[in-house]
Structures are given as C-alpha cells and as structure tokens.
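Listing 4. Sequential folding, example run.
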Amino acid sequence: MREGDLWPALRAYWHPVAFAEEVGDKPLAVRLLDERIVICRLGSQVAAFHDLCIHRGTPISLGWVEGEHVVCAYHGWAYDAGGKCVRIPSVPPGHPIPKKACLTRYATEERYGLVWVCLEQKPRAPIPDLPMLGDPSLRVVVRDRRVWQCTAARAIENFLDLAHIPWVHDGTLGDHNNPRTPDVDLERDGEELRFTVKGVSDLLHARVCVRSYRTHRPFSVFLSKEESDGSTEIMWFSCTPHSAKSCTRCILIARNFDPPPGVSRIEDFEEVVIAEDQGIVEKQRPEELPLDLTEELHLKGPDAPALAYRRMMRELGVE
C-alpha cells in the first residue's frame, strides 16, 4: 500500500487550495487529488466546481466572473454559486434551461486566510482548529505557498523527521556534531497525532525551546516553539496533493519577538531552510510514501513520529 491508494478516502477531507486573495475577479484553476478544480469568488462567497462545462467540456477556468455568476468562455453559459446554469445566450429569453445544465460543485470554506475544498458532501473531519493563528500578540512573518515535485505525505513526513535536522540543516536548525534525536512521547487523539520535544538552539532561538507538534490527518502540522522567557513562534505547514509527483506546500509563521542579530529577514532564513529540505525530498524514491512498514528500514526511536504518521495514514486504506 502506498500513498496514492488512499486518494479515494482523502476526498472526504478538507484541503487548502489557495490563499483567499488569490481568488479574485478571475476563475482560478487548481488541481486536487488529480482532479481539476476551479475556484471562483461569486458575490460574497467563494465556490469550487469541477473545472468542466457540462455543455462541450470546456474548462470553466478559461472563462470569467460576472457579479454572482461564472461564465464559460466557449458559448457564454453562465452558472451561479450553486453550479446551476442561469443563462444560455444561444436560445431565446424564456426558453427553459435543461435541469442537467449544472456544474459539479464542491464544499468550500474560507478560514485563516485560505480557501479550503472538500470533494465529498460529508467531510470526514472538520478543518483543523488553529486558534493561535488569530492571536493578536503574534505577527505573521512568513506566508508562503509553492509547488514541490514530491507527494504531500513525503513532505509532511520530512517535517516530522527529527533525525534529519542535524544533517540537512547543519548550521541553521541543527548541528551535525550533536546528531542524537530526543525522546518523544506520542499521543494519538482521533485525527490528530501529538508529541513534544525539547529542542536545541538555532539561529532564530538563542535558548532551548519546547517544541510541540500537532499533526492533523492527512497533510498538515501545527508546530509551536516556546522559550523560557515567553518568546513564542508558531508554524503551520500543510500540503495540497496535486498528483503522484506534485504538491503545493503552504507555510504560515507567526511570532512575538524580533529575529536575533545576524538574521536580517526571517524570509531569507526560511528560504535557506526550504531549499535544504526541497533538495532532499524531491529526490526520494519511491515518490509515493510507502505505507507498508516493511518496504523501508526504520529505527524505533528516531523514526517514531514518522512511523506513527504512516500508521495513522494507513488506517484510511484498511477501514
């Protein structure tokens, strides 16, 4: 069993597909679980549809928005926020519109400045609760979405992997002269996996900090770093699965302190860390995360978070 075998089950989860400001006066095409989706801001609401006009198979994303309607570029058919066709220009006014003239609509919500989509009518779990992202004492310093040529689960597992930090991030987040991974106590609560570690200092945290991880199935992790003086940094990392070899990783970082001397811009620091991870994760094989635990070699201690994540994901394929 591999990651792609879970995609039918993953349709019932909420996935972040865009920043809210990316959905403006033009339809936005995205790919989710290998399905083409179009996101539109129609009036006061955001709607998501299968990116295909029912008439002649033209992508709705080639069209445009007129007030509360999205218009197909091929023949001008107009659809409302519910996906119902409300205008066919080639027929006289008053001519009945076929009942089948509808777009396939998906559940959509805006939260935390992101647009979320669920491909099933009944979501398996709610959108992750991240109240600290609304904490006024924390200012957002990084807000980034970019495509990686890897699967979503590979990227998430890398974020949970503590043993790679001294090697991949030597001099930034870790030190290869201190490669031992700390012990972790894992706790599972339904759709969430939690663990806490005492981290080491790095270029952004002069003091040892407590790092608390909350992994929400399937593809998001909330990490908080708290120092003894109250300095706090929170990080939310999520991946949108596009295909068997591509995802968009999203990261939001907020904190209540200024960067230390020597780090002029947090964005520059994060660019270095992201590049260090990306160079490794995009070259892992097989591309899809193996969910058969015998397919790769594991170490009981250092690999504990990754093993717990794989088991949690594997459950979706055997229920």
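-- end of first protein; second protein begins --
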Amino acid sequence: MQGARFISSTSNPRVRDALRLRRRSHRDKADLLLVEGFREVRRAADNGYWPRTLFFCTDFFLGENEPELIEACGRAGTELVECARPVFAKLSYRDRPDGILALSPQLHRQLGDLRMPGAPLLIVAEAIEKPGNLGTILRSADGAGADAVIVCDRCTDLSNPNVVRASVGTLFCLPVAEASSNDTLAWLRKHDIRILAATPHAKTVYYDAPLAAGVAIVVGTEQYGLSDLWLKNADLRVRIPMRGQSDSLNVGTATTLLLYEALRQRKLS
C-alpha cells in the first residue's frame, strides 16, 4: 500500500508497543485503545474517530473494501503500517483476524457533553463487570436508537478491546458517557428524565410500563442487581418474567428486551 511502512519482524518495537495496549495501565498511559476488525474500524472512521495508527495485512483480508478504508485513513493522517503475516498474527487478539487493527484515541465523554432530544431514551449501566456484556449493551442501544448510554461506577474499562469487539464498533456510533451513580442521578433529576429500574423483585412486568416518554432504563449485573441508590430513587421498577428455574437474564439480554419494548411503544404512540 502506497505510503505505508512495512514490518516483517515480530520483535519490532512497534509490535511490542501495540501488544502492551492489551493492558489497561498502558492504554491509559498512552490514551489509546485497540480496535480490531474491518467493521469496527469502518464504524469508528465513519463517525469521525480516525485511527492514529493502522496495522494491516493483506493475507488476512476477507473482502475487497479494505484498501479503500486504508486509503481513507491515510488521507485523514493515519500512520499506515503493513505487516507480514506472522507479525499481524501476533498483533491480533481474535481467533480469526481479518487483517485490520487500529490504535485509536480513547473516548472521553462526560454527562455535560450529552445533548438530549425531547423524550430521550437512555441506558444507565451500573457496575457492569464483563466486557462482553457492556459491548452487547452498546450494540443493542445503537440498534434500538437509544440517545445515549451512561456507564456508572464502572468495573469494566470502556477501552477494553473486548468491549470494542462485543459492541461491533457501535462504541463509536452513539454518545457514551462515564460518571458516578450519584452524579448521574442528579443529572437525570435536573433534566426531568424518569428513572426506570430493572429488578427481578418488581411487581410491574416490563411490557406494562410506559416507555414512550423520556426515560432512563437502569440496569445492573445479574449477580448483585442494582444498588439501593437506584432502587430507592427509581420512578418505576420493572421485571422480566422468568418461567423457568433461573431468576434473571444476562444483563445484555435484559437490556435488549427493554430497549426494544421502548422502541415498540414509541412506534405505536
């Protein structure tokens, strides 16, 4: 690829530096995150998040659109680094790499950066522990057209490569802010946004709850549930009916159900 440097050795310092970004301490120090995959990098670029560095290997390409993406990144000022097959195999954290891996600036958005429309649909995710679950929440929020996701009291780093992977790049498609639960609660009250808490102990079934008006759907982990702060301050509590022996769903699955019920009601209203 024109303008790209070529790396043939797995011991190249650029490779070692990129591998260090798998650790949160190094990501935070460099203020970078790893974005692997054509779809993920494409979505980041389409939303104005151009990589700082793009590693690629033509041996792993799965389609014909990769060169166009690489050239677009180059025009945007991205450093292009072509890799020999063993080099990219070492860089990749996927079982089936597709030859595209980017080093991109971390996202830093706070509550004050959010701009809400009328009747907003928000997800508040409290203390989500697993990167895959947080990524699924982001993907579902994008799919249902949510206006923002607020990550409270985070246990999982938003820049974790597995969050990016599980979100399929939708981390870059919608506003995602980070804040404490206390600050988020105050922000929601200031903007007169109703709070709906999802808990197995609620009496109201989720599809009987009014979700067409502005609402923040608050979800927590299936192991511990929501904190007392959210349960006590919720304007409404809802549950998802469980007919088997399990008493709760995976938080990503539960969030998806709630989001699409809100979408259904808004289409009918």
